Each structure stands twice: as structure tokens, then as C-alpha cells.
Amino acid sequence: MLNNIGLPGLLLIAVVVLVLFGRGKISSLMGEVGKGITAFKKGVNDGTKELDEDKAEEVVDVTPDTEKDKV
């Protein structure tokens, strides 16, 4: 069903949405969507950094401390 829309159909839908909601409402909505995407990306990056820091804390030095091995 959605495969048959094409460019003219998308343009018609865009015009109808613009007429129904107005330019100001659509621009503010897109601004909020952009802020949401930015916040999501920041959250993902913070979570990744936190996991990397946890892994770095778990690393243990297993180098032997004997005098024979230091020579």
C-alpha cells in the first residue's frame, strides 16, 4: 500500500499537514524532535562511557612481583 505513494502523493500529504497545523506548529514540533534526538544521542554516549569506565576499573594487573621476574 505505501509502495505506491510516490513523490506527488508525498507532496500532497505535506501540503495537507501544513494547512492543518500551520507553519509555526510544525517548526516547533521539528525543533522538539531535534532536541529529543540530541538528548538520546547524549544519553547513549554517556552510557557507553560509563560502561567503559566500569570495565577499566575491573582490569587487574597480574604481573608477578617476585625479584626473579624483575631481572
Structure description:
The protein is mainly alpha-helical and about 70 residues long. It contains three helices and no strands. The longest helix is centred in the middle third of the chain and has 36 residues, at about 25-60. The termini are far apart.
**What class would the helix/strand composition place it in?**
mainly alpha
Largest sheet: none
- Flag low-confidence runs: none
Distance between the termini: 76 Å
Q: Say how many strands there are.
A: 0
Tally of contiguous helical segments:
3
Look at the structure and give the mean pLDDT. 83
Backbone shape: elongated
Overall helicity = over 70%
Order of helices and strands: HHH
Taking Cα atoms only, what radius of gyration do you get, to the nearest Å? 27 Å
